[in-house]
Specification:
About 20% of the residues lie in helices and about 35% in strands. By secondary structure, the chain is an alpha+beta fold. It has a 6-stranded mixed sheet with strand order 3-6-8-9-10-11, with helices on both faces. Strand 9 and strand 10 form a beta hairpin. The longest helix has 17 residues. It starts with 11 loop residues before the first helix and ends in an 8-residue tail after the last helix. Keywords: Endonuclease, Hydrolase, Nuclease.
Length: about 190
């Protein structure tokens, strides 16, 4: 286990001291995860997802983007690319309860971490819905999982390219993965 400069596990106080260098700093069980600054396809997909989720959002929920933290305890803080939270669970600084939905938009450097490690941690924390979006220019995908039995995710939806991604949870929304990155194509 890597430790901080004081020889102990990283905690949320250490996160507050991280440089503002465009990277994303997160904690899982006191381990520091550092992600590279996102590229345009990632940001395009995040922006489109935020708009679509915000338009569909119920009054009891809020849609937020990274770097807003989901802080389970002092050794665990994740920063999903997009999250949906119950309004009543939010504080001005972070979300101390599991979000209703956590969305990770992957890049080549984060796909394995997002699809396995972070997905498993979200399940452990009780996040009911998890989406993984890959904004690959040739084959964009969106996949949704729902937490079953409080412990494991079951895949409930997957769309590729122009296929329509439809889900009813946490509220009805639909889009195609290609729509999420349409802004990367030059205007006609």
């Amino acid at each position: 286990m890597r430790t901080n400069a004081n020889g102990r596990r990283f905690n949320v106080h250490d996160l507050a001291e991280m440089p503002d260098d465009g990277r994303r700093y997160e904690l899982i069980d006191g381990e520091l995860l550092v992600s590279l600054a996102p590229e345009w396809p990632h940001q395009e997909a995040v922006g489109e997802l935020f708009v679509r989720l915000r338009q569909a959002c119920t009054p009891k929920h809020r849609v937020l983007t990274a770097p807003f933290g989901v802080r389970h305890d002092i050794f665990n803080e994740l920063r999903p690319d997009v999250l949906v939270a119950r309004y009543a669970d939010l504080t001005l600084e972070n979300l101390p309860a599991p979000p209703v939905l956590a969305v990770e938009v992957s890049s080549a450097s984060s796909l394995l971490k997002d699809a396995s490690l972070k997905k498993a941690v979200y399940a452990r924390l009780g996040v009911r819905h998890f989406w993984l979006v890959d904004p690959d220019l040739d084959v964009p995908t969106a996949t949704a999982w729902d937490l079953v039995g409080g412990a494991e995710y079951q895949r409930v939806e997957r769309a590729v390219g122009d296929e329509v991604f439809r889900t009813r949870n946490p509220f009805p929304v639909e889009f195609s993965p290609a729509d999420l990155i349409a802004g990367l194509r030059p205007p006609a």
